[in-house]
Write a structure and sequence with these properties.
- Pfam families: TMTC_DUF1736 (PF08409), TPR_16 (PF13432), TPR_7 (PF13176).
- This protein has about 950 residues and is mainly α.
- Helices cover about 65% and strands about 0% of the residues.
- It contains 42 helices and 2 strands.
- It has a two-stranded antiparallel ribbon.
- β1 and β2 form a beta hairpin.
- The longest helix has about 50 residues.
- The relative contact order is 0.06.
Length: about 950
Amino acid sequence: MDQWVTAASSLLAFLLYYNTLDAGFVYDDRRAILSNPDVIGHTPIKALFENDFWGTPLTDPGSHGSYRPLCVATYRLNYAFSGFKPWSYHLLNVFFHSTATALVVITAKRLLPTYCMKVGTVVTGLSFASHPIHTEAVAGVVGRADLAACNFFLLSFLLYTEHLRIRNRSHRRHCRDSYKQILTRHLDAEDQNFRLSCHGLVQQLLISVRKLLKAGKTGPLKVFNVCEVSVGPVQLSKCHCNACASEDAGELLQWCTLVGTLLFATAATLCKEPAIMVVPLCIIYDFLRDIRQDEPFSKYRWRSICALSTGGLTLLYWRLRIAGAPSGFAAADNPTARDLSFFTRFYTFTYLPVFNFFLLLYPFHLSFDWSMDAIPKITSIFDARNISSLIVYAAISKVSWKVLTSEIKRQQEKKDRFYKKQKTKQKWNNNCKHFSRRQYCSERKSNMPQKENASSKRSLCPCNGCKHSLTEEHTNVCRTVNNNNIMMHNSCVCPTGFGKAMAQRQHKHTYRSPQIAMLLFTAFMVLPFVPASNILFYVGFVVAERVLYIPSVGFCLLLGLGAGALTRTWRRNELRSRIFMFTLLVTLCAMCGATLRRNLDWRDEESLFRSALHINPPKAYGNLGSVLSTQGRVVEAEAAFERALKYRPNMADVHYNLGILHQNQRRYAEAIKSFEKAIYFRPSMALAYVNLGTSLMADGRLAEATSALRAGARADGIRVRDRREHDAARVSALVQLAALHSRRGHWHKALSSYKEALQILPVTNSPIVGWTRHNVLTMAGDIYIQLQQWAQAEHSVLSALALAPGHAATYLSLAQIVARNTSRNMEAETWFKKAITLAPDDPAVRDQFGMFLRSQRRLRESAEQLVTAARLSPTDSTRAASAARALRDARKCRSAERWYARAVELNPNEAEYHSNLGAILHLNGKYVAAASSYRRALQLQPNDQVTITNLKRVRTLMSNQRKK
């Protein structure tokens, strides 16, 4: 049954999110994946542990501070497997959600009370699988950080529960020690010398074998299945240890599980930072799980807690040392954090956890973004939302206090009973040591009431070994060792400590009461949410649905606990149970339907932004306008931008995108105004300067364009959100400035701009949003060529080749530079051939090589290259004419005639082509066709003297032929 619940919940999780496999990259996916150099592989593996989640170095002042290298590593694996095909990214997300659902079910089995086990486990698993609040985490690829963190979070917690189980079992395991003490204690017994000597010999043999097994292949984790020793006529019974694991093996397992807990906690933290809260959660669970008061147990508990706390604090210190505290964020992302009023911040941030809890209760009012004024600030104590905050916190405080007080009272009662039991045991130990057990117990029996139960019997003269008080309740071995009439307070060898009695004792000390479960599940829900609550520190968002993925585990466990409690007495009230189950089924179906519908919102960006128009209009309209603009729906995009600015006029991004829209429509005056507003609201926006300069150049205002581009190149980017995009914009400004200087003939200024751009670009050839060091070096080489500084030009191109040795155009530029020196013609030809090898289908390379061969008077080879270039571009009339000219120079007039005809066919309105066709026809003796071509050339260009002369010659030849 348990396996079926786990399988059904995981299957439901997979089926509900199956429709996300056709979704694309939306919203933050573009920056986190499509433009992240750590994902694309432009950086080494170690860069994953040096950069933040978005690919920016952690040492950069503008770094986001989010450190999630394991999550980025999964993106990198996806890219290596399928490139930028979204389905593989979404498939892995769905798989993570399915495994998390299975782990939630396993956690519910470990933590729910016994009477809640069946219904509670089903409700927990199915509600977690179908909860609509998970859509952002599963359908959005960026949400994988929460999915992976949740998996490691639950694995860490489950491993710690296993550590506690092994620790408690090892605490009670003294089977071998008991045998050793018994045998040592009776070595001096005269009537058992031979038997015990044999027993001791066999015991020593077993100990030696055990040591050999530990040192051999079997290892310390191998256990004895039988601890059976023959002692004369008596055969000792089997030691009923659970697989008879040795104490050393149990100790080793304890440490392995504890280390595994810390390792999984570290992995969870490297996926997303809030997962570090699994460490305090494990500590709370350790305290709530068992209330045993004996000193050895407390010692082992505190040992585990101290080790776990030390590991958690070390992890926290290392995390803060690596990435530091969260960096600054825009005021629009979390407006309340920048509010000057303490009470406004207090009221609002007190309300936000309540709002998140309401989202878990009613997940049908969702948005991709809750920034700006999506949740208005609470500025007054009389705001109605303060009432909901007060009610929720009061209810939580009252319930928690009631549960804690009742549990403290229960612990005190257990403690009193424990000490009373110890006193009773000591009393009977002192009183019974001089009497025969059989005689004493018979006396007690005669004085006992007839209805006295078994538990009262066992409390009369309790045995330290098996806790039995009647001799006949001991095993034959125990009675034989103690001669049937000796008090067995110190020499009981009954195996009950590892049998059913010990299982009952273990259950007795393991609390699975609803009160304890409620406290633990509340901690499950609250602790992972604390880092995102703006309580410890301010974060860059108001509400984010994906951060509720881990807290929703506790919420679903609470649902399972409530469902189990309500159905505890379902047989007594069948009607009420049926109504409850029907309501539960309807709720589950509603959650499934809402999840499927919400998945469609995350299918593409237009649907996603339209779904939030009623929650966050400025953000949604601004992003929607960008999507519509890329789709060519200009009118709708402009209307969306204007609606966004109507709600919030100071949005620099929207002004910038509106300027791009106007620029593409060549409405340069309006574009210039939009870019200027974007710069006014965000002076560090380098892209706005670049496009402002472009619009000014298009409008003929070159001096202003120069100033704008120079300002863009010097824009301050200390706190910019995306350092790579900012640097790329600065490089674009410098490249545009260099192009402007080149257009005006200021070659030295252009060269200075290129050198400044090279200082911004990294030493490697890693691209910064399209720009590479190789590109700029190549363009700088062209400027050196214009300045006729051939040595510098060659050095620049060679530097570019060192960065990109597989770039054919760079080899072509180097060949042209080298060809300037006639003594290096062989070297130039080598570079030309290298370019052809790298780009055999590039007609430009063939053209340049053909012209080089022609300059060396290698006319036939030149014609071959130019003909190949013409064939590679069959619609280019210029290349067809060049091929014909080369063939004519190589004395291949018939082939030249065909290519001239091809040029005329491709461009019949070019007079030169008709004139050249007439000339080649003239040479080939086709005078009538030649005359026709000359006349057509004169129609297109009437005053061409060369064509007129050639036409007269053809007419003369034609008249001579007629005379003959």
